Amino acid sequence: MDRSEVPMGDDTTIFGKILDGQIPCHRVYEDEHTLAFLDIFPLSPGHTLVIPKQRVAALHELSDESAAAIGRVLPRIARAILRATGATAYNVLQNNGAAAHQAVFHVHFHIIPRHGDAGLGLGWHPTALGAEAAAELRSRIADEIET
Ligand code: 5GP
């Protein structure tokens, strides 16, 4: 087994410990495949984390079943957060890998309601997409998609 086959998200992560009941959380939702709870260092009131119960580090490692379960509950939890906080805008943030600012290596989605500009700051520095590069990248990615 090489490093790429070793699951990085396991019961040693803080979220694994929350799933095991070793560490408390402010739970807002739970079902067979998912758990949602308040972020302990919120960027804004209502900042919530939605996690799969499957213990993997990154989004691309999720089973179809876990991915579907997360996709099903995210809009539901977002609606609840909007109603509960009065926010009308929110960001969904999902970091994969240390270079992408992931600190806890168990898949999680941040739902961050926006109350003005406070909390989350995003640097967004677009570049141009040339026709040749687009054609080449499009086909390389499309060819890699598992069906
Ligand atoms: P990441 O940078 O990995 O996407 O974000 C990890 C998030 O987990 C951070 O927003 C951090 O505040 C949150 N977090 C870290 N430890 C705990 C904890 O023990 N309990 C809760 N509820 N959130 C945590």
Description:
The protein has 147 residues and is α+β, with helices and mostly antiparallel strands. The chain has a single domain, classed as 2-Layer Sandwich (HIT family, subunit A). Helices cover 29% and strands 17% of the residues. The radius of gyration is 17 Å and the shape is globular. It starts with 13 loop residues before the first helix and ends with a helix. Mean pLDDT is 93; it is low at 1-8. The structure holds guanosine-5'-monophosphate.
Please state the CA-atom Rg, rounded to the nearest Å: 17 Å
CATH superfamily: HIT-like
- Percent helix among the residues? 25-40%
Q: Which compounds are bound in this model? A: guanosine-5'-monophosphate
Average pLDDT figure: 93
Strand proportion, as a percent range, falls in 15-25%
Q: Can you name the CATH architecture?
A: 2-Layer Sandwich
Kindly report the spatial arrangement of strands forming the biggest sheet. 1-2-3-5-4
Major beta sheet summary: 5 strands, antiparallel
Question: TL;DR of this structure?
Answer:
Helices cover 29% and strands 17% of the residues. It has helices at 14-19, 64-85, 131-144, and strands at 27-30, 34-38, 48-52, 89-93, 109-114.
